Amino acid sequence: MKKITSVQYRKSAERRIQLKAGTGSHCPTNGFWRPEDAPATEPVFVFEGSMMPPGKRGSTMWYLDDAQVGPPAHLLPGMN
Fold first, then answer.
1. 65 or 77: whose pLDDT is higher?
2. Nearest CA to 32 among 21, 43, 23, 24?
3. Domain parsing of the chain, residue ranges
4. pLDDT one-digit tens code per residue, 1-41
5. What are phi and psi of 35, to 5 degrees?
């Protein structure tokens, strides 16, 4: 199994580091992600260590959406 390392956010007054991950790679951190090929769509919640899903047109780059905070809007299977 591939080792997943934690990612810490570093904010500075001048710039912020934006996380990104490609389709098929392991998600670096829990959060809401937006696909590069359809940035206007609703973000998708992906758990750390999960494989990043394909976008609408197949393989794409995903960007962490810092504006979305909190749990997923819809319950996942097995969560009651």
1. 65
2. 43
3. 17-55
4. 555 554 444 443 334 567 899 999 999 989 999 999 887 88
5. -80, 145
In DSSP notation, 43-68 reads PEEE-TTSBPPPBTTBS-EEEE-TT-
pTM of the model: 0.62
Specify the pLDDT at position 15: 47
Structure tokens at 28: 């670096």
Looking at residue 21, its amino acid is: A
What is the DSSP secondary-structure string of 4-51? -------B-SS-BPPPEEETTSBPSSSEEEEETT-TTSPPEEE-TTSB
Amino acid at the residue 63: Y
